[in-house]
Design brief:
161 residues, alpha+beta, 2,3-Dihydroxybiphenyl 1,2-Dioxygenase, domain 1, five-stranded mixed sheet, four-stranded mixed sheet, 18% helix, 29% strand
């Protein structure tokens, strides 16, 4: 039996194939609020929050001008951007809506609140915040209870005021 991964391990960044680098960079900058840290001509760009080297990489190495992958094909379902608290999640969602970009859904998973959308290349994105672990529900067998309940988006957005 192999050892479990260290509990402090985190997923550090996502790197996405896009068809139009300028369009993708504009979305992640203007709609989601990330900053460009490095750009390699018309081939790749790296973006971050807070000055980190990169949280998101975008490239056209194999995908310039390509159509999005079919929904029914294998591949990335979505990646998730974790916000530090409910207010910051609300501000991010407000920025998305104020930009005119739509959302695909919203859910209360018990352990988290999540908003779902997609980028111009139809890569799925989850914007979310975790509830404090003391609020998580644990079943009698010790497993974590999660679900998918409606999220009151208007209540969330009051946090952005």
């Amino acid at each position: 039996m192999s050892a479990a991964v260290h509990p402090d391990t985190r997923i550090g960044h996502v790197h996405l194939k896009v068809s139009d680098l300028d369009r993708a960079e504009s979305f992640y900058r203007d709609v989601l609020g990330f900053s460009t840290t490095t750009r390699y001509g018309d081939a790749a760009t790296f973006m971050s929050a807070g000055g980190y080297h990169h949280h998101i990489g975008l490239n056209t190495w194999h995908s310039k001008g390509a159509a999005p992958a079919p929904v029914s094909s294998a591949g990335l379902y979505h990646f998730a951007i974790l916000y530090p608290n409910r207010r910051e999640l609300a501000i991010a969602v407000k920025r998305v809506l104020d930009s005119g970009w739509g959302i695909d859904g919203a859910a209360d998973h018990g352990v988290s609140e999540a908003i779902y959308l997609h980028d111009p290349d139809h890569n799925g994105i989850e914007l979310y915040r975790d509830r404090d672990r003391s609020e998580w529900s644990i079943a009698s067998d010790g497993s974590l209870e999660m679900g998918t309940e409606p999220l009151d988006l208007q209540d969330l957005l009051t946090e952005a005021l």
